[in-house]
Structures are given as C-alpha cells and as structure tokens.
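Exercise 7.
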Amino acid sequence: MGASSSTANPSPEAHEQREQETLASATLALPLLRAAFTRTSSADADTLPDALAPPRGASFLRPPGSPPPPPHFHDLLAGLGPAVASIFSAGGTASLEGDAGWVPFLRGFNRCCARVSASRSLALLLRVYAAACAAAGAPCGVQFQPSDEGGDEEGKVVGELAPEEIAAFLWMCWVMAWSGSAPRDSGDGGDKSEPVAVLLPDVTHLVLSALVSAGAVADDDGIWGWEISGGGKGVKVQEFTSWMLSTASGIGNCLSRYVQGRFRSLVADPTEQESSVSTVDMAFDTSDVFLLTRGRAWAISLSLRNKLSEKFLSASVIGMDTEDLLYRSSVHGKGLSRFWSGVEGYKGPMLILLSAFSKGGVENVDSDRRWVIGALTEEGFESKDTFYGSSGFLCAAHPIFRMLPPSGKEKNFVYSHLHPQIRVYEANPKPVGLAFGGTVGNERIFLDEDFSKVVVRHHAVDKTYQHGSLIPNQGYLPVEASVLEVEVWGLGGEATRRQQDVYKKRENIFSEQRRKVDLKTFGNWEDSPEKMMMDMMADPNRVRREDR
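Solution. The predicted structure, written as tokens, is:
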C-alpha cells in the first residue's frame, strides 16, 4: 500500500520535472536537450552564454544602397548569447549546473521555445534586445514597468524606439535566423582565420512600414528619399508591437528558432556540420541583382504563416535558386507571350514582382522614384477571360512594405487572358493581359499584353484582397505607370519544375506533329477534290458518270 501510494503521489519536484519534460519534448527531442544540458553544465565545455552566442568569425557588412549598421552592432551581437541565457535564469534559479539544474534548464528552454501567445514572444524578444544593448553600452528605448501581479513576466514592456534602433533590432532578428544556416564557428582556423563577410539585408522598407503604421512618417511624397540615418520621430513600443503582429508576425518565432538551432549546432558532429554547410556560401560579396532581394524575401517570409515562409526565409539567408526564376523581362523579353512561355505548365505557387515608375516625365526615374509591387499566387496560371484562383496575396515591396492577404469576400485572385488562337468576332472583347483583384475592366492591378504599362487602382474597386495602398501617395484615381522589369519566381520546388519540363516536352512533340504534313494524302491527283473542281469549271455542262 505504501509503494502504491508513493507511486500515485509523486513528489512536487518529480511532478514538475515530468511537466517540463513533456512541454519541452513538444518542441525539441529530449535526448538532444539532455546532450545540450550536459555540454553546457560540464566544467570543461562551453557555458550556456557561449552555446547561445551567434557563430563566431562573421563580419556583417552594410547592404548596398542603405546606411551601415550602427557602430555598436557587433558589440550588440556579442552580448546576444548572455542576453538569451539570462532568459533561462529569469525564473530565479541561481545555477544551471549539475543534475539539480536539469529542471531549471528545461524551465528556461520552455520559457524561450514553448508555444505562447505572439505578444508574449515579442515581449521576450524585446527583452533580449534590451539586455544585449545594455551589455554593448548601446542606446535602447525599451523599458520595463514592474507588474502588479508578479510572476515571471517581469513587468510590461514600454518605451520608444528610434528608426536606428528599429533597424538594429530587425538586423539582430535576421542574424538569429541566419545562425540556423551557419556553422557554430564560421571560421574554424583559430585566431588566424579570416572573418567571413556576411551581407546584411536591406530593412529600410520594413522600418518605413513600421513608422508609417504608427503615424511617425506620413504616407505621402515624403517617403521618397527617406533614410534610416535621417533620424526623425520614434515609435512607441506598443505601436511597434502592434505593427509586428499585423505585418511581420514571423518575428515572434525568431527566439525559439534561434535557441533550437544553437542547441542542434552544439550537439552536432563537427564533421557532419561541416559537410552540411559546405554547400552553403555564407559570404555574400555581391549585391542583389533581382527584384526579389534578400531583404524583400525576408519581409515576405515574416508576413506569411504557411510553408512558403520557410522558402522565403531560406532565400533571405542564402539567396534564391536561379533555377526557380521562371521569367525575367530583361532576359526573356517583354510581353505576355514571352511571359506565358516561361510559366505555362507550372502548377505551383509563384511570386510575380514588377517595378515601375509613374508617368510624369523622365525626372521620376532620375530621382529614383521607382516602386515595386507584387502578387503571390497559390497555383499556376490559366488562359481565361474570367478571374480564377483559390488564394493569393498582394504586396508592396518598395519603398515601403505591405502585405495584403485575402479578404474572404470574393475570389477574383488572378486574371490571365491571351489572344485566342482562332479569333472570332466579339462585340465586347475581354482585355488581354495580366490582372489581380477587382473585376474585369476594373482590375486592382492590370498589366497590359506588351508589359509596357501597368494600372494600379484604389482598393475600393477590389473585394478580393484587403484594403491598403500599394504605391506611395496613392489616391482614388487609377495610377498608370511604365513598367521597368517583371520577374516570376516558382516556389513549388524541384518536383514542380520537373512536372513543367515534362509538360513542355509533351507540348513540343505535339507542335512538331502538327507541323508535319503527310504528302501521301496529296499524291493521287486523279482522286483529289481539287481536280474535280477544276474539271467542273472547265466544262460545267459535261455529263459525268458517278463512280460507285
């Protein structure tokens, strides 16, 4: 009876350990966590702050055309490991060493990685940023108000963030995502190894989106030429958190993914780790040459909540695979027919990006008033004179970032209409071109068949996608612009590319068969209908006997 009672009523310590292990195993395998705990708790191994630090030996450089990171940025990254480790010990545990530290270690891991509300994840991430700034001696507008209820929340996050601080925070989050693809030590040659140059993505469009959302910057002509280094009015932490929840909700997963990635790297076999990253070029010494830059890919990944988010996140770290580029107007030629030859048969999600400038003279190009918008489709294109599609997104990519998901009211996602091969008279011909949202003849985005002109209308004409302006200072009247470049990226992976190759080969075979003429059918002149017609025209009154 005594043994049965002891088994039925475990001690509070055993009960808590079981709860913490169950919660942690839902995120990461317990054997891996146990190995990471052993490595960080032994005296001759790395400490927890070292294990949670970003890969050493990396030098982060400024992205082309954007201001450099703040002078204290590398010091901020150096304090990232201790800042994350402080989250582990925030529950009041004095030490995480020895067997007695296993439960506190799990408690700290669950604090960082367990499934919680998005607002709490963002609050933890802001705490990490504030702690890293404090270690680096950098200015930080994030403050904490003590909570009346107590607990482990440690108060409410308040304060105000300047534009430079928002950029530093976003770059820190990107480095945390980059760490998942980097080796634990980017330079394995000791002190003599040269640092690996890593090019940071441009985050100006994200910073500007946060400022416009909070009202710190007006959505008018002042957007053109705006720079992070120009300073200006800051954003309250509550408003910045609201912007992240609505526009870049993926930022909330940065801390959890970072901790899991660091632990995996800690316990991984060094030889396997080197082979796994040997094919990844971590040095970005070339600028972004496509419309889908790494900064725009990262912004899209933060706004999506489906499997495509991982695709764009990988593109923001190592760049897009050029084999996924289905069409580029500067390479394949402008026009709907050239576009169709690249996307026909691709039955998978695609991203269409176009850059243009509003008509009004050459001065718009000279003043760099180009804007970039795009559409994300979940399925392939079809040649129809009506709208079709099941889901999709519209996005403004430059100079400001916005993602417009479906509204759920209508399903006019895509319109792609080519000239029919057999033309017939139509009293009201349907427009030939590419469109997204709106209705036929009143599309939200319409690209003509020559890919020379694009028309962007106000969101009032569209019930398919959510409201929001796609270009700066967009009014109620349609905006007609000249197209500079069009890109289409396939996001279905290698299997979808193979299916498209099979489709194109089959279509080529059918085309060759249609070109071939069977000369045997024209070889017997006496039996041909052409000879009969010629004889009738020569002597129509001649009596002929019908051959039976």
